Amino acid sequence: MELEFLYEKTLQGAVNAKKRKQEQYRKIVAHLYYHGAASIAEIVKSSKISQPLVASLVDDLLGFGVVLESGIGESVGGRRPNLFCLNPEYQYVVGIDITLHSLSLALFDMNNQLVYREEYKEFDLENTSNCTQIIVEKVKIALETRNIKPEKVLAAGFSIPGLVDAEHGLSHTHLSFTELGLGAYLGSQFGFPVLLDNDARTMALGEKAFGKAKDKKNVLCLNLSNGIGLGMILNGELYSGKNGFAGEFGHILIDPDGKLCSCGKIGCLETLTSGKILVQKIKDAIDEGQASFLASYKKEGKRIDLRAVVAAILAGDQFAIDQLNQMCEYLGKGLVTLLHLLNPEMIIIGGKLAHAGKFIINPVTMWMNKYAMDRISSEMELVSSDLLDDAALMGTMASVMKKVLSNRLE
Protein backbone atom coordinates (compact mmCIF):
# COMPACT_ATOMS: atom_id res chain seq x y z
CA MET A 1 0.00 0.00 0.00
CA GLU A 2 1.57 3.26 -1.16
CA LEU A 3 2.30 6.00 1.37
CA GLU A 4 0.76 9.20 -0.04
CA PHE A 5 -0.81 12.42 1.14
CA LEU A 6 -4.47 12.81 0.22
CA TYR A 7 -3.77 15.46 -2.41
CA GLU A 8 -1.23 13.22 -4.14
CA LYS A 9 -3.91 10.68 -4.92
CA THR A 10 -5.63 13.26 -7.14
CA LEU A 11 -2.58 14.34 -9.17
CA GLN A 12 -2.89 13.75 -12.91
CA GLY A 13 -0.38 13.46 -15.76
CA ALA A 14 2.45 11.29 -17.00
CA VAL A 15 4.20 9.16 -14.38
CA ASN A 16 7.54 11.00 -14.45
CA ALA A 17 5.88 14.45 -14.38
CA LYS A 18 3.66 13.37 -11.49
CA LYS A 19 6.63 12.08 -9.48
CA ARG A 20 8.57 15.29 -10.08
CA LYS A 21 5.63 17.39 -8.90
CA GLN A 22 5.16 15.14 -5.84
CA GLU A 23 8.79 15.60 -4.88
CA GLN A 24 8.51 19.38 -5.20
CA TYR A 25 5.38 19.47 -3.07
CA ARG A 26 7.00 17.24 -0.48
CA LYS A 27 10.05 19.51 -0.20
CA ILE A 28 7.73 22.34 0.77
CA VAL A 29 5.68 20.19 3.15
CA ALA A 30 8.92 18.88 4.68
CA HIS A 31 10.22 22.38 5.33
CA LEU A 32 6.97 23.41 7.03
CA TYR A 33 6.83 20.17 9.03
CA TYR A 34 10.39 20.33 10.34
CA HIS A 35 10.77 24.12 10.71
CA GLY A 36 7.27 25.47 11.27
CA ALA A 37 5.71 28.53 9.64
CA ALA A 38 7.85 29.98 6.85
CA SER A 39 7.89 32.56 4.09
CA ILE A 40 8.28 31.85 0.37
CA ALA A 41 11.87 33.13 0.54
CA GLU A 42 12.73 30.72 3.38
CA ILE A 43 11.24 27.77 1.49
CA VAL A 44 13.16 28.77 -1.67
CA LYS A 45 16.42 28.79 0.28
CA SER A 46 15.95 25.29 1.73
CA SER A 47 14.29 23.61 -1.26
CA LYS A 48 16.53 25.09 -3.97
CA ILE A 49 13.43 25.59 -6.15
CA SER A 50 12.94 28.91 -7.95
CA GLN A 51 10.83 31.57 -6.24
CA PRO A 52 8.10 31.71 -8.92
CA LEU A 53 7.71 27.92 -8.82
CA VAL A 54 7.64 27.81 -5.00
CA ALA A 55 4.93 30.50 -5.01
CA SER A 56 2.90 28.47 -7.53
CA LEU A 57 3.37 25.22 -5.56
CA VAL A 58 2.35 26.90 -2.29
CA ASP A 59 -0.80 28.20 -4.02
CA ASP A 60 -1.56 24.61 -5.06
CA LEU A 61 -1.01 23.35 -1.52
CA LEU A 62 -3.28 26.08 -0.16
CA GLY A 63 -5.95 24.89 -2.59
CA PHE A 64 -5.48 21.28 -1.50
CA GLY A 65 -5.93 22.36 2.10
CA VAL A 66 -2.64 20.91 3.33
CA VAL A 67 -1.13 24.39 3.84
CA LEU A 68 -2.65 27.42 5.60
CA GLU A 69 -1.77 31.10 5.73
CA SER A 70 -0.10 31.89 9.05
CA GLY A 71 0.12 35.64 9.39
CA ILE A 72 2.92 38.07 8.54
CA GLY A 73 6.61 37.59 9.25
CA GLU A 74 9.34 40.05 10.23
CA SER A 75 10.79 42.27 7.53
CA VAL A 76 14.38 41.62 6.45
CA GLY A 77 14.40 44.69 4.23
CA GLY A 78 11.32 45.62 2.26
CA ARG A 79 7.80 44.35 2.62
CA ARG A 80 6.93 41.99 5.49
CA PRO A 81 6.42 38.48 4.05
CA ASN A 82 3.36 36.25 4.27
CA LEU A 83 3.93 33.11 6.33
CA PHE A 84 2.57 29.64 5.62
CA CYS A 85 2.18 26.56 7.83
CA LEU A 86 0.84 23.03 7.65
CA ASN A 87 -2.83 22.43 8.35
CA PRO A 88 -2.62 20.22 11.48
CA GLU A 89 -5.99 18.62 10.72
CA TYR A 90 -5.26 17.79 7.09
CA GLN A 91 -4.32 14.20 7.96
CA TYR A 92 -3.41 12.12 10.98
CA VAL A 93 -0.92 9.43 11.98
CA VAL A 94 -1.88 6.43 14.12
CA GLY A 95 0.71 5.26 16.64
CA ILE A 96 0.59 1.69 17.97
CA ASP A 97 3.03 0.49 20.63
CA ILE A 98 2.83 -3.16 21.67
CA THR A 99 4.69 -4.69 24.61
CA LEU A 100 4.31 -8.19 26.04
CA HIS A 101 1.64 -7.00 28.46
CA SER A 102 0.27 -3.69 27.21
CA LEU A 103 -1.12 -1.91 24.16
CA SER A 104 -0.77 1.85 23.72
CA LEU A 105 -2.53 3.80 20.96
CA ALA A 106 -2.13 7.40 19.87
CA LEU A 107 -3.42 9.73 17.16
CA PHE A 108 -1.18 12.59 16.04
CA ASP A 109 -2.02 15.60 13.91
CA MET A 110 0.38 17.12 11.38
CA ASN A 111 1.93 19.28 14.10
CA ASN A 112 3.01 16.19 16.08
CA GLN A 113 0.34 16.93 18.69
CA LEU A 114 -1.37 14.07 20.49
CA VAL A 115 -5.09 14.28 19.85
CA TYR A 116 -5.83 10.87 21.41
CA ARG A 117 -3.95 8.47 23.69
CA GLU A 118 -5.10 5.28 25.36
CA GLU A 119 -3.23 2.52 27.15
CA TYR A 120 -4.64 -0.97 27.70
CA LYS A 121 -2.71 -2.55 30.58
CA GLU A 122 -4.54 -5.89 30.52
CA PHE A 123 -3.45 -6.72 26.98
CA ASP A 124 -1.26 -9.81 26.47
CA LEU A 125 0.69 -10.28 23.25
CA GLU A 126 -0.15 -13.67 21.72
CA ASN A 127 0.64 -15.06 18.27
CA THR A 128 -2.99 -15.35 17.21
CA SER A 129 -5.35 -13.68 14.75
CA ASN A 130 -7.64 -12.93 17.70
CA CYS A 131 -4.92 -10.84 19.34
CA THR A 132 -4.44 -8.91 16.10
CA GLN A 133 -8.18 -8.36 15.82
CA ILE A 134 -8.19 -6.77 19.28
CA ILE A 135 -5.60 -4.28 18.03
CA VAL A 136 -7.68 -3.54 14.93
CA GLU A 137 -10.81 -2.95 16.99
CA LYS A 138 -9.02 -0.65 19.43
CA VAL A 139 -7.68 1.45 16.56
CA LYS A 140 -11.17 1.71 15.05
CA ILE A 141 -12.50 2.87 18.42
CA ALA A 142 -9.79 5.53 18.60
CA LEU A 143 -10.66 6.86 15.13
CA GLU A 144 -14.38 6.84 15.85
CA THR A 145 -13.83 8.63 19.16
CA ARG A 146 -12.10 11.51 17.33
CA ASN A 147 -14.46 11.28 14.32
CA ILE A 148 -11.55 10.61 11.94
CA LYS A 149 -12.31 8.58 8.83
CA PRO A 150 -9.70 5.99 7.68
CA GLU A 151 -9.00 7.98 4.48
CA LYS A 152 -7.83 10.88 6.66
CA VAL A 153 -5.06 8.68 8.11
CA LEU A 154 -1.72 9.09 6.36
CA ALA A 155 -0.38 5.84 7.85
CA ALA A 156 0.09 3.92 11.09
CA GLY A 157 3.42 3.39 12.78
CA PHE A 158 3.59 0.06 14.62
CA SER A 159 6.14 -0.74 17.34
CA ILE A 160 6.54 -4.36 18.49
CA PRO A 161 9.22 -6.37 20.38
CA GLY A 162 11.35 -9.05 18.77
CA LEU A 163 12.91 -9.61 15.36
CA VAL A 164 11.33 -7.27 12.82
CA ASP A 165 12.13 -6.79 9.13
CA ALA A 166 10.87 -3.21 8.76
CA GLU A 167 11.59 -2.98 5.03
CA HIS A 168 9.22 -5.85 4.23
CA GLY A 169 6.78 -5.34 7.13
CA LEU A 170 7.53 -8.73 8.72
CA SER A 171 7.48 -9.64 12.41
CA HIS A 172 9.38 -12.89 12.99
CA THR A 173 8.87 -13.19 16.76
CA HIS A 174 5.32 -12.02 17.52
CA LEU A 175 2.11 -11.94 15.45
CA SER A 176 3.86 -13.93 12.76
CA PHE A 177 0.85 -16.14 11.99
CA THR A 178 -0.16 -14.48 8.71
CA GLU A 179 1.46 -15.33 5.38
CA LEU A 180 0.81 -11.77 4.18
CA GLY A 181 3.21 -10.40 6.76
CA LEU A 182 2.01 -8.34 9.72
CA GLY A 183 2.36 -4.95 8.02
CA ALA A 184 0.36 -5.91 4.93
CA TYR A 185 -2.23 -7.78 6.99
CA LEU A 186 -2.87 -4.80 9.28
CA GLY A 187 -2.93 -2.47 6.27
CA SER A 188 -5.67 -4.58 4.69
CA GLN A 189 -7.67 -4.41 7.95
CA PHE A 190 -7.22 -0.67 8.52
CA GLY A 191 -7.45 0.60 4.95
CA PHE A 192 -4.24 2.65 5.25
CA PRO A 193 -0.49 1.81 5.19
CA VAL A 194 1.30 0.38 8.23
CA LEU A 195 5.01 0.90 8.91
CA LEU A 196 6.33 -1.81 11.21
CA ASP A 197 9.52 -1.80 13.29
CA ASN A 198 11.13 -3.19 16.41
CA ASP A 199 10.24 -1.37 19.64
CA ALA A 200 13.79 -0.32 20.56
CA ARG A 201 14.48 1.14 17.12
CA THR A 202 11.13 2.95 17.20
CA MET A 203 12.04 4.37 20.61
CA ALA A 204 15.37 5.54 19.18
CA LEU A 205 13.52 7.39 16.41
CA GLY A 206 11.34 9.04 19.03
CA GLU A 207 14.39 10.13 21.02
CA LYS A 208 16.10 11.41 17.85
CA ALA A 209 13.09 13.44 16.73
CA PHE A 210 11.68 14.65 20.05
CA GLY A 211 13.90 13.58 22.95
CA LYS A 212 17.43 13.78 24.31
CA ALA A 213 19.01 12.40 21.11
CA LYS A 214 17.84 15.43 19.11
CA ASP A 215 20.78 17.18 17.39
CA LYS A 216 23.11 14.31 18.33
CA LYS A 217 24.76 11.92 15.88
CA ASN A 218 25.83 8.85 17.85
CA VAL A 219 23.39 7.70 20.51
CA LEU A 220 22.47 4.29 21.91
CA CYS A 221 18.87 3.99 23.12
CA LEU A 222 18.21 1.15 25.54
CA ASN A 223 14.73 -0.28 26.00
CA LEU A 224 14.74 -1.78 29.48
CA SER A 225 11.38 -3.38 30.11
CA ASN A 226 10.61 -7.09 30.41
CA GLY A 227 13.53 -7.72 28.05
CA ILE A 228 16.40 -5.59 26.74
CA GLY A 229 16.36 -3.95 23.32
CA LEU A 230 18.74 -1.51 21.68
CA GLY A 231 18.14 1.18 19.08
CA MET A 232 21.24 2.76 17.56
CA ILE A 233 21.59 6.20 16.02
CA LEU A 234 24.95 6.10 14.22
CA ASN A 235 26.26 9.02 12.16
CA GLY A 236 22.86 10.66 12.55
CA GLU A 237 20.84 7.76 11.11
CA LEU A 238 18.96 4.82 12.57
CA TYR A 239 21.04 1.67 12.15
CA SER A 240 19.08 -1.51 11.41
CA GLY A 241 21.67 -3.95 10.00
CA LYS A 242 21.40 -6.23 6.96
CA ASN A 243 17.96 -7.73 7.69
CA GLY A 244 16.72 -5.18 10.22
CA PHE A 245 17.75 -7.31 13.19
CA ALA A 246 20.50 -5.08 14.64
CA GLY A 247 20.22 -4.23 18.32
CA GLU A 248 19.61 -7.59 20.00
CA PHE A 249 21.74 -6.42 22.93
CA GLY A 250 19.85 -8.60 25.40
CA HIS A 251 21.15 -11.71 23.65
CA ILE A 252 24.89 -11.10 23.86
CA LEU A 253 26.69 -13.90 25.74
CA ILE A 254 27.59 -13.00 29.33
CA ASP A 255 27.68 -16.35 31.17
CA PRO A 256 28.62 -19.47 29.11
CA ASP A 257 27.54 -21.67 32.03
CA GLY A 258 24.37 -19.71 32.72
CA LYS A 259 20.67 -20.27 32.27
CA LEU A 260 18.68 -21.04 29.15
CA CYS A 261 17.36 -17.88 27.49
CA SER A 262 14.02 -17.51 25.71
CA CYS A 263 15.97 -17.27 22.43
CA GLY A 264 17.22 -20.84 22.92
CA LYS A 265 20.82 -19.95 23.77
CA ILE A 266 22.65 -20.15 27.09
CA GLY A 267 23.77 -17.28 29.32
CA CYS A 268 22.38 -14.25 27.48
CA LEU A 269 22.42 -10.86 29.20
CA GLU A 270 18.61 -11.04 29.52
CA THR A 271 18.91 -14.10 31.78
CA LEU A 272 20.86 -11.98 34.27
CA THR A 273 19.39 -8.51 33.99
CA SER A 274 15.95 -7.56 32.68
CA GLY A 275 12.61 -6.46 34.03
CA LYS A 276 11.34 -10.02 33.83
CA ILE A 277 14.27 -11.36 35.87
CA LEU A 278 13.98 -8.54 38.42
CA VAL A 279 10.28 -9.23 38.98
CA GLN A 280 10.82 -12.99 39.26
CA LYS A 281 13.64 -12.64 41.81
CA ILE A 282 11.55 -10.35 43.97
CA LYS A 283 8.48 -12.62 43.77
CA ASP A 284 10.56 -15.68 44.69
CA ALA A 285 12.07 -13.88 47.68
CA ILE A 286 8.66 -12.68 48.90
CA ASP A 287 7.38 -16.27 48.64
CA GLU A 288 10.23 -17.22 51.01
CA GLY A 289 9.25 -14.54 53.52
CA GLN A 290 11.37 -11.58 52.45
CA ALA A 291 10.21 -8.25 53.92
CA SER A 292 9.21 -5.78 51.25
CA PHE A 293 6.48 -3.24 50.43
CA LEU A 294 5.53 -5.69 47.71
CA ALA A 295 4.68 -8.42 50.23
CA SER A 296 1.35 -6.66 50.75
CA TYR A 297 0.60 -7.14 47.03
CA LYS A 298 0.76 -10.88 47.51
CA LYS A 299 -1.50 -10.77 50.58
CA GLU A 300 -4.06 -8.63 48.75
CA GLY A 301 -3.92 -10.77 45.59
CA LYS A 302 -2.50 -7.94 43.49
CA ARG A 303 -0.21 -8.55 40.53
CA ILE A 304 3.49 -8.01 41.22
CA ASP A 305 4.67 -6.74 37.84
CA LEU A 306 7.38 -4.38 36.64
CA ARG A 307 5.26 -1.30 37.28
CA ALA A 308 4.71 -2.37 40.89
CA VAL A 309 8.42 -3.08 41.37
CA VAL A 310 9.43 0.34 40.02
CA ALA A 311 6.84 2.00 42.26
CA ALA A 312 8.32 0.16 45.26
CA ILE A 313 11.84 1.28 44.29
CA LEU A 314 10.71 4.91 44.04
CA ALA A 315 8.97 4.57 47.42
CA GLY A 316 12.28 3.51 48.99
CA ASP A 317 11.79 -0.28 49.29
CA GLN A 318 15.37 -1.26 50.16
CA PHE A 319 15.02 -4.88 49.11
CA ALA A 320 13.76 -3.92 45.63
CA ILE A 321 16.52 -1.31 45.33
CA ASP A 322 19.16 -3.90 46.30
CA GLN A 323 17.88 -6.36 43.70
CA LEU A 324 18.05 -3.69 41.01
CA ASN A 325 21.59 -2.74 42.11
CA GLN A 326 22.76 -6.35 41.73
CA MET A 327 21.44 -6.52 38.17
CA CYS A 328 23.07 -3.21 37.25
CA GLU A 329 26.54 -4.75 37.39
CA TYR A 330 25.76 -7.05 34.46
CA LEU A 331 24.06 -4.23 32.59
CA GLY A 332 27.04 -1.95 33.17
CA LYS A 333 29.47 -4.60 31.88
CA GLY A 334 27.37 -5.10 28.76
CA LEU A 335 27.18 -1.37 28.10
CA VAL A 336 30.94 -1.03 28.46
CA THR A 337 31.32 -3.45 25.54
CA LEU A 338 29.06 -1.23 23.43
CA LEU A 339 30.85 1.88 24.63
CA HIS A 340 34.24 0.54 23.57
CA LEU A 341 32.94 -0.68 20.20
CA LEU A 342 30.78 2.28 19.14
CA ASN A 343 32.05 5.28 21.14
CA PRO A 344 28.63 6.97 21.48
CA GLU A 345 28.20 10.50 22.82
CA MET A 346 25.14 9.45 24.82
CA ILE A 347 23.37 6.34 26.10
CA ILE A 348 19.67 6.82 26.88
CA ILE A 349 17.90 4.38 29.18
CA GLY A 350 14.23 4.06 28.26
CA GLY A 351 11.47 1.55 28.80
CA LYS A 352 9.61 0.71 32.01
CA LEU A 353 12.80 0.61 34.11
CA ALA A 354 13.68 4.17 33.06
CA HIS A 355 10.98 5.29 35.51
CA ALA A 356 13.40 4.28 38.29
CA GLY A 357 15.53 7.30 37.35
CA LYS A 358 18.59 7.75 39.57
CA PHE A 359 18.08 4.28 41.08
CA ILE A 360 19.22 2.75 37.80
CA ILE A 361 21.39 5.54 36.37
CA ASN A 362 23.66 5.83 39.42
CA PRO A 363 24.60 2.13 39.86
CA VAL A 364 25.03 1.56 36.11
CA THR A 365 27.28 4.64 35.96
CA MET A 366 29.34 3.27 38.84
CA TRP A 367 29.92 -0.09 37.13
CA MET A 368 30.68 1.54 33.79
CA ASN A 369 33.23 3.79 35.46
CA LYS A 370 34.87 0.70 36.95
CA TYR A 371 35.18 -1.28 33.72
CA ALA A 372 35.34 1.34 30.93
CA MET A 373 38.40 3.12 29.55
CA ASP A 374 38.29 6.58 31.08
CA ARG A 375 39.31 8.32 27.86
CA ILE A 376 36.15 6.96 26.18
CA SER A 377 33.67 7.02 29.06
CA SER A 378 34.52 10.54 30.24
CA GLU A 379 32.96 12.10 27.13
CA MET A 380 29.80 9.97 27.15
CA GLU A 381 26.56 10.83 28.98
CA LEU A 382 24.35 8.14 30.52
CA VAL A 383 20.83 9.54 30.98
CA SER A 384 17.27 8.37 31.45
CA SER A 385 14.63 9.19 28.87
CA ASP A 386 12.37 12.20 29.30
CA LEU A 387 9.83 10.67 26.91
CA LEU A 388 9.54 7.46 28.96
CA ASP A 389 6.39 5.54 27.93
CA ASP A 390 5.73 7.95 25.05
CA ALA A 391 9.09 7.35 23.34
CA ALA A 392 7.94 4.51 21.07
CA LEU A 393 4.63 6.26 20.30
CA MET A 394 6.51 9.43 19.32
CA GLY A 395 8.82 7.20 17.31
CA THR A 396 5.91 5.82 15.29
CA MET A 397 5.04 9.40 14.26
CA ALA A 398 8.68 10.12 13.39
CA SER A 399 8.88 6.90 11.37
CA VAL A 400 5.85 7.75 9.22
CA MET A 401 6.82 11.36 8.59
CA LYS A 402 10.44 10.48 7.84
CA LYS A 403 9.26 7.93 5.28
CA VAL A 404 6.73 10.17 3.52
CA LEU A 405 9.00 13.23 3.46
CA SER A 406 12.14 11.44 2.31
CA ASN A 407 11.52 12.70 -1.28
CA ARG A 408 12.68 9.37 -2.65
CA LEU A 409 9.73 8.20 -4.68
CA GLU A 410 9.99 4.74 -6.21
UniProtKB/TrEMBL annotation:
Pfam families registered for this protein in UniProt: ROK
Domain of life: Bacteria
Stated family: Belongs to the ROK (NagC/XylR) family.
Name used for this protein in its record: Sugar kinase
Organism this protein belongs to: Labilibaculum filiforme
